[in-house]
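Morning!

This is the sequence you dropped in the shared folder:
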Amino acid sequence: MGAKFCWYNDLEPKGVGTNGFTQYGARRCKQAGITVLDSFSDINIIAMKKKVYIYHNAKQLTTYACSYGGETKLKNPSVTIVRNVFMNKYGAGDTRVTNLIRAGYYPKATNDKVSTVINTAKKIINGQVNYGTNEARLKKIDSLLGTGYG
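The structure's back. Tokens below.
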């Protein structure tokens, strides 16, 4: 199986193919059907349990099978971590992904939990669900934050 992704460093301030090695390298990769990622954004690659996960532009791009079967030290986010994401303590976009990985948390699991809380809050604001008083609404969001966490 051939390569699917490659990336280049900031060697070409005017863009891919303007000068130097990647003038030819990036073009050849694209012609071969390989996705060329710029490294102006963070590229995070996590290998664990026979899979490789690639993140770019704050999104999980893809997952591939691989031979590495080791365990990861990453874990699901705690309630505190999710709340800290809401308070922007991990930054945004690629910075958030990198900081969550450095702190030892799965970026996708964290993002999924944050999205669940945001979607529930939107439903409350739009009147699609009614959990009663403000206190009851906050209690519902607290219960969502705590689901599956100890």
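Headline: The longest helix spans residues 107-125.

More detail when I'm at my desk.
O.
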